[in-house]
Amino acid sequence: MGETMEDINQINELNQNEIYIVEATKRYVFEQLKDDTSGHDWWHIHRVVSNTIKLARLEKTANMFICVMAALLHDVIDDKLVEDEVEAVEAVKQFMPEQSVTTEEQASILSIICHMSFKGGQQAPLSTIEGFVVQDADRLDAIGAIGIARTIYYSGHKGRPIHEPELKPRENMSFEDYRNGKDTAIMHFYEKLLKLKDLMNTESGRQIAEGRHKYLVEYLEQFYAEWDAER
Question: What is the rounded CA–CA span in Å between residue 214 and residue 231?
């Protein structure tokens, strides 16, 4: 399970009790997401946790335990992946006390995972450095080479075409439009991916996002050239 994830025992910012809780949470999340075929599988969690650890260290003031726990749990309540979002949140609320997560820590983690999703840009902004770090870490996995792969993969999962030239990116979408409206993989670049660089919360996240954003732009240039048989 996630053998290449940084050894939790090597995260010096965590104490032994926190390491125990994180390991239990890894198992909990792995069991729920290991069979996902939408691009939100265990390896997405692995990458977001790795990004989170990196950003938390660069930002220096973030609580590493809160960050790692939120990164691990953020997709087990995602409405794209669960039949009942309220029920999924309740399951997390039940899981955390069983692992001796304190009431204050539970509140911080839940606040992050319930408010960090892009959701067509409709979500209320986060307010803590831990929330900023985890949201940036998740958004980094939505851009660059991996972001492109996940977009194509998710579009196939949802039965959406790669590109329909007559369809144009939508602005000022409702959440329902964003989730269920007619779109394509290429439209998703304009409706979400290309916006993320300017929505990063942390300086560290912005610096990493610059290079990944540039790759998105270059990919689109090549895509359109090939689509029109120019290259």
Answer: 20
Q: What share of the chain is helix, strand, coil (3-state, %, to 5)?
A: 65, 0, 35
Instruction: Give the lowest-confidence range in 42-46, 48-52, 117-121, 209-213.
Output: 117-121
Using the predicted structure, report yes or no on whether residue 4 has a pLDDT greater than 50.
no
At residue 198, the 3 state secondary structure works out as: helix
pLDDT at residue 52, as a whole number:
97
| pTM summary value | 0.91
Report the helix count and the strand count for the chain, using DSSP H and E: 10, 0
Q: Over pLDDT 90: what percentage of the chain?
A: 81
- Return d(Cα 210, Cα 98) in angstroms, integer: 40
CA distance 202 to 186: 27
- Token pair belonging to 62: 């973030």
Q: Give mean pLDDT, residues 83-91.
A: 94
Contact 186, 162 (CB under 8 A): yes
Average pLDDT, the chain: 91
User: Residue 111 and residue 95: Cα distance in Å, rounded?
Assistant: 16
Using alpha carbons, select from 196, 80, 199 the residue that is nearest to residue 141.
Answer: 196
CA distance 26 to 95: 12
C-alpha dist (Å) from residue 186 to 47, 65, 205, 227? 23, 37, 24, 12
Can you spell out the DSSP letters for 207-219? HHHHHHHHHHHHH
| Cβ 141 vs Cβ 117: under 8 Å | no
Cβ 140 vs Cβ 202: under 8 Å: no
